[in-house]
Amino acid sequence: MCFSCAMLIPAFVALIYGDGGGKAFMQAFALSLTVGTLLWWPCHHHKQELRSRDGFLIVVAFWFVLGGLATLPLLLLDTLHLTVASAVFEAFSGLTTTGATVMTGLDSLPKALLFYRQLLQWLGGMGIIVLAIAIIPLLGIGGMQLYRAEMSGPMKEQKIRPRIAETAKMLWIIYFSLTISCTLAYWLAGMDPFDALTHSFSTVSIGGFSTHDASIGHFNSPLINGITILFLLISACNFGLHFRAFSTTGHENFIKIYLRDPEFRFFISTQMILVAICILVMWNHSYFSFSWQDFEQVLFHATSISTTTGYTTLDFTVWPSFVPVLLILASFMGGCAGSVGGGLRVARVLLLYLQGKRELKRVVHPNLVYPIKLGKTVLDERVIGSIWAFFSAYLLVF
């Protein structure tokens, strides 16, 4: 039911620009509202705590139901002519912030449709965070248990807020604030209001959709590229960490909260190492001249691809083949736990590294008792086991 309201916004955009797409979005709104009401009405009186099996059902239903409803406007638009398979692909790609697309000629498409694609990624990005922090801990797959292990004091066994509704509210506030900030930054850097808003949707959500075929490269602006890099890095960090940082008082505490977090340090370190390796390889192949423009392009694409965003400003496939392959491999790690980034998540990769390090020490010292710590917190072996299970399942997909 709530998702159906999202159809009204692009309908309003269609009215402003007069591109004729309003009818399709109003029809999709009516159908989505009907389906939502039919699903909500039989169980709206039942109130109880979520169990693990409820969490699995919510995760599956979230993607399949919303993905199906998100397909409706793409099928109903007269000017698009997408097949059912293409429409489903585009809708799921948007909601899951994957960023792959089957659509071309974006510059000439109706503004309402372009806005809707970007909006899907923005809504999907926030959905991922809410699931990661509020729902997925119920499933016990080694995700936000790591985040909760780093909490101290009375909140150690809680989420950001003790109730899921309050958790979601605080996350929405952070997410919305980042979106507004990104929109203003893009606008001040030279984007028109429409592009600034729509690109902030896909930047903060780490989705990668654009309203132009040339992606961010359409604007040909180093300043816009720099703003994109900044907000991609912010969005790839743990939103629970953002909450803790902005809830403190004092500049020193704000900085220390980030620097004390082992996942954040590992994430920033790997980004710096990734950029350095790319620069060295490209310099060795005479593709890098140590100019600011070359450095900015390497930094932009390393950040965009490793965070699983997919923005581009040029054809990086002409670079030495090692660089694109390295960037794609880096995207398997993706963003931090509790972020909108994809991939395995930085926390899991860090824990896999620490586990491997421990096993190597055990080869030399078989009787060594060597607990795995995240910061100062000793992690339960069940958390490590669940991460290995997730990692194995992740590899099986490929």
UniProtKB/TrEMBL annotation:
Transmembrane segments: 24-43, 55-76, 119-147, 168-189, 223-243, 264-283, 325-354
UniProt subcellular location: Cell membrane
Superkingdom: Bacteria
Keywords: Cell membrane, Ion transport, Membrane, Transmembrane, Transmembrane helix, Transport
GO molecular function per UniProt: monoatomic cation transmembrane transporter activity
Keyword Chaperone in annotation: no
Any single Pfam family the record assigns to this protein: TrkH
Single GO cellular component term: plasma membrane
Membrane topology listed for this record: Multi-pass membrane protein
Keyword Secreted attributed: no
GO BP: metal ion transport
Family stated for the protein in its record: Belongs to the TrkH potassium transport family.
Protein name: Potassium transporter
Species, as recorded: Rodentibacter genomosp. 2
